[in-house]
Amino acid sequence: MKSIKGNNVSPHQFVLNDSLHQLFDAVNVVSVQGYDEQRQVIYWNVGSELLYGYTKEQALGQKLEDLIIPEHMRELVIAAHSNWITQGIEIPASEITLRHQNGTDVNVFSSHVLFTNQYNKKQMYCLDVNLADVKYAQSQAQFKDNMLKTIIEALPDLFFLMEMDGTILDYHGTDKKNIFVKPSQFIGKRMIDLLPEDIVSKFQTHIDKALHHHGMTTFEFELNMHRGIVYFEARLNYLSAYNQIVAIIRDISDQYKSAEIIRQQAYFDSLTQLPNRFLSLDRLSQMLVECERSNEKTAVLFLDLDDFKKINDSLGHEVGDKVLIESGRRLKQVLREADTVGRLGGDEFIVLLRGINERHDVLVITEHLLKAFRKPFIIDGRELMLTVSIGAAIYPENGQSASDLLRNADTAMYRAKDLGRNSCSFFSKEMNAMMLRRFKIEEQMHGALERKEFELYYQPQFDVKKRQITGGEALLRWHNSTLGNITPDEFIPIAEHTGLIVPIGRFVIQQALYFLNQWQSIKKQKYTMAVNLSPRQFSDIELLEIITKALIDNNINAESLELEITEGVLMSRQPLVHETLIQIDALGIKLSMDDFGTGYSSLSYLRQYDFDVLKIDRSFINGITLNKADCELVNAIISMAHSLGLMVVAEGVETVEQLTLLDELGCDLAQGYYFSKPIPAKAFLDFVADY
Ligand code: C2E
Ligand code: CA
Ligand code: CA
Questions:
Q1: What is the pLDDT of residue 12?
Q2: Which domain holds residue 356?
Q3: pLDDT at residue 600 in the model
């Protein structure tokens, strides 16, 4: 027992179980207060000091209602206390707000006991537990709850809490348009009762994933709802403490649609709406994977419209665009559903054929494709005839990867072009080597002019009767440090294809006329110089200017220059061919029909322009002394040419027998190894001097 310096407290009043007081003194997290029948404090532990601010000394002897009871509760407390003492009506334990010494509220859970001591006096003990921490925790929880509600309302997502088997335990969400039924109707239901089977199984797969990876897993699914197909994104997370799954589901239809538009732009050609290069190759890659599994073949066709550039250049891009759209449409029409037509760019298309057993299957389809172009294209009331060249590469024999197959189909397409267009070629190994060589040549040709790798050789032309030199033909040679000497038969078509023939051709004209001037000055005599012109050079708008300037610069008469063209030039439909040929004639320059007999050998071409010379191709001269047919043909050509007023040159004369026969047939001029091979300028001048 402790001696208490109290106000007017009689010693017998605080006699209680001493050991109990010792216990109360030791706990400071619970406030223990003892009151006598007059509600005066008889016990006040450290917990009370801490909770209410009054020291034991301040509290002892004070009345309960004066210490910690707020004003408005005093009467109530006094009455309750008296009821307990007099009538035994217990004061129940309860949560209550009392008062600190400094006037602030103290929330406590208060329990009470009533003792009767050895003097038969009643003593009330109150045990108050501070609720401040609990209250704080509660308010925090409340706050979090509210915040969550606000967030959920602000988010477009649907939140589901589920058992591991997909039973829905709880649901939140404001996006009412995306749920089939009221939440009350699906809480407690399993997903399998609400969603289509395939989506449920998707959910189940991802629930397992979330369970095993202990993290968020995300997937997308689509539902056919009354307002159309709706695209959703689901995010699942596993709540390990509860063995439950949280599913957050969001309508991503708008996002999906924008993505679809972007996808359309990224994967499809905007003009024809066909798959673009990227998507086409992607599909091809997929097909190859499938083919590998199923041991099937696939064919890749590379299609290139013939002379599309001409349409674009002469009729405008709008017409060109319409031609491309119509071409795409026709290709699609011919193919089966499972096949793909894509646009690679420009006038290039790609076709992917599935389920191919043998080359013949491809042939049947390419026949149809070529046929699809036979009907004229009617664009803006204009009838256009178009053809297409096709290259085919077959998986697996012609390549393992999409890019290999495409490249090889491209190579085969070039071959189809070389073979006269409007046809299909299949890739072969030899083509590959050819193509590689072609690339190397192309690579080296850039800069070859600047590196002065080109040189003109000259081959003399003779008067058959008089056996006198009348002129020469300029023939180009290319000495390349990497590739060695490359023949014009090999590099001229490539120069033509790349357009490099334009600058190279200019060089040839300037050089040939420069040499002619040299030659004429030495011999003080007029000679002709024959220069070859290829189709592409006619699209060089400066061609005539270059020729005229070279004539003037080198003091050469126009009639000393002879320009050799083949039927290929006339058929090439290159722009400006017609105008240029007329101008050439008007300038007084001679025009020569080269390689006559190898092409169409059309008389109408010879009549169309004012040709001066006709050159009979080497292949006929070769045979004149051997077979009658060749001889008769050459005879006929010479007569016909003469009747049209043309001089005739025999090319490739190698023997004296050939020369004698040509003389008999009335051929005017001859050139060939019999006289001389094409030789460098210096050697040529020596040859002329010696002859
Ligand atoms: P081409 O215009 O028909 O030239 C005649 C070709 O026949 C030359 O071949 C010449 O060397 C060859 N030749 C001449 N006589 C004989 C002979 O008796 N026997 C044999 N077997 N061949 C003979 P080359 O110089 O290799 O030129 C090949 C083709 O390249 C030319 O055929 C021509 O189409 C083209 N070419 C050459 N130089 C030029 C050029 O400067 N510009 C253009 N556009 N084409 C050129
Ligand atoms: Ca020639
Ligand atoms: Ca020729």
A1: 45
A2: 270-445
A3: 66
Characterize the bridge pairing of strands 669-670 and 647-650: parallel
Residues forming beta bridges with residue 251, ordered by sequence position: 232
Closest ligand 1 atom, residue 617 Cα: 3
Tell me whether residue 142 is in a domain: no
C-alpha of residue 63 to centroid of ligand 1, in Å = 132
Q: In angstroms, what is the span from residue 475 Cα to ligand 1's centroid? A: 6
Q: Is the Cβ atom of 459 under 6 angstroms away from ligand 1?
A: yes
- The pTM assigned to this predicted structure is 0.55
CATH number of the domain enclosing 549: 3.20.20.450
Output the pLDDT for position 17.
Answer: 61
Residues 6+ apart with CB under 8 A from 505: 533, 534, 537, 540, 543
Query: Is residue 146 assigned to a domain?
Result: no
Helix pair 543-553, 501-523: axis angle to 10 deg: 20
**Per-residue confidence (pLDDT) for residue 11, from 0 to 100:** 45
| Distance of CA 198 from the midpoint of ligand 1 (Å) | 72
488-498 helix and 501-523 helix, angle to the nearest 10 degrees: 130
Q: Is the CB of 495 under 6 A from ligand 1?
A: no
Are 208 and 288 part of one and the same domain? Answer: no
pLDDT at 668: 98
Asked if residues 353 and 298 have their Cβ atoms less than 8 Å apart, the reply is: yes
Q: pLDDT under 70 in the chain at which residues?
A: 1-17, 175-181, 599-601
Give 270-286 as a 3 state SS string: CCCCCECHHHHHHHHHH
Q: What is the CATH number of the domain that holds 292?
A: 3.30.70.270
Nearest residue by C-alpha to atom 7 in ligand 1 = 652
Which residue's structure tokens are 């083509």? 431
CA of 601 from ligand 3 middle (Å) equals 13
Tell whether 35 and 161 lie within a shared domain.
no
Determine the pLDDT at residue 13.
Answer: 47
Angle among Cα 329, 331, 332 to the nearest 5 degrees reads 65
**From atom 8 of ligand 1, which residue's Cα is the shortest distance away?**
475
Residue 673, ligand 1, Cβ within 6 A: yes
Query: Looking at the CA of 569, which ligand is closest?
Result: 1
Residue 156 pLDDT = 79
d(CA 51, CA 128): 9
pLDDT of residue 7: 46
Q: Is the CB of 610 under 6 A from ligand 1?
A: no
- For residue 367, the CA-to-ligand 1 centroid distance in Å is 36
Residue among 532, 453, 546, 540 at smallest CA distance from 493: 532
CB 508 near ligand 1, within 6 Å: yes
